[in-house]
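Feature request disguised as a bug report, sorry. It would help if multi-protein outputs had a clear separator. Right now it looks like this:
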Amino acid sequence: MDNSNQRRRFIKSSAFGLIGITAFGNSSAQVMINKIETGNYTEPLFYRYPGINDSMASGIVGASHGNFDKVKELVNSRPELAGASWDWGFGDWETALGAASHVGRRDIAEFLIAHGARPDIFTYTMMGMLKSVQEIIETVPEIQLHNGPHGITLLQHAKNRLENKDISASDASNVNKVISYLESLGNADIKPKSLDISEEEKKKYLGEYRFGTGEGEIFVVDLHRLGFMQIGRKGSSPRALRKIDENTFSPAGAPSVKIIFKITNDKAGSLSVHEPEPLITAVRI
């Protein structure tokens, strides 16, 4: 056997051993082998490979908030994405189905379920499935106290469904039955603690806070278009902030986290993140 054939066999066995033919399929694996053999394989793999790329996971969860065309494009290409989840920050985890459920998009939710997403009580609530909701609550007492992504209550999932213009009369009737049932429980709409804060008070916290030397190692505290305060790493999706004490806030979906501002001359000079122990301090730029 000549050296070229030995080299080809070695590359094939090494490639299949490292990446697995089942991961790519025969044709994709052969394409990769051809690239390796010809020296044309220069595309870096995701640093957590074989974990799915973060941009794909965040992309499907983000799209599931209302971009049905994008959801279909992503899931038809990679059906596994129907079960994807994403941490928007500080542990505010959300699945693609969870996103569709809290914005009341039954069409997106049904598509995701058809491709393998796993529904829960929040999905059943949004869909107006009274019997399923009742059975879960009877089986798991007090589960109605649990909030969904971003701290959105179980009852609010049903109310958000009613806000969709495409809802049919029969669908709306079923959702209203779930709303009546949850309201009768008296504790399915307990929102996270949030103290009042004036527009003037908000101004002393707004700005950029550096916590490292890197270009993106900056927290941005600003106002959402609806007027509430939010925080996010520069270039990433921000999280809503709820005031829970003097100069102390908690990000949406992460009640154990505290963000404490240090005030000097009626203006924040720094902030510290506690999860729940002090983790990082960022100085105002």
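(second protein starts here, but nothing in the output says so)
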Amino acid sequence: MMIMDPLAALEAAIKARIDGAPAQQFAVLDFDNTCIINDVGEVTLAFMCRNHLLRYGGLLSPGQQPRSPAYHKRVFRHYHEILNAGDIRSASLLCAKMLAGFRRDEAEAVVTAALDAEGTVAGESELYGIRIARGLTVRPGLQRLIDFSAANSVQIWIVSASPEIAVRVALRRFGLSGNLIGLRHEIDNDILSHILTEPHSIAEGKVDCIKAFIDDSRRPLFAVGDSVYDLPMIAYADIHAVVERDNALTQEARRRGWFVLPS
């Protein structure tokens, strides 16, 4: 007997659910390390710190001089300290606030420059003594899943803990389609504020965003993520899938009998 590959099995499960469904279905996908390899927010933060581009001096404490090289080094190291400590909320909010002080078009230009500098070849580099992943590229399996969903009238929503601006630029760069929920800045006189609009699409907040911005009465047809911080969103969907990353979420997915897609 031929064993169906995990992606084909997921597509079959999706097709079985949508055939004869009375209303259009929607699905939710994490972005960083799920739709793409590596993290567009982290790539942009590294680029901005390396090139001393931060404009907001309150990322660590009020009254800092954002243009100084020392400030950029401290911000970058602090981000990785709180990320490694498992404080995903504080890390994600800090990363998004890096764009405070820019107009939207200026922020998009910075992200574009970061993607240009980053390239698409996965590897490693080092900044301020910290080893970081390098290169951004689309996961072919997720591109196939997005295309399959579009062909079957399943509405795709990207739900990301990265800045909405950064993810939108990346979606355009990689030709990925879908609606987008990400961390969004309040606007003050055309300038991106350091205040981020709630609910925040981080961990459990992703479910709050689904209810607030997509549908508060229906669950997603399926959800895909790559880390334990995506667990609430994935569990909330009818069909559950994760990208294989040999981490805690992968182990939990196998324990629960969820779909595990090859990376």
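Even a blank line would do. Unrelated, but nice: The mean pLDDT is 95.
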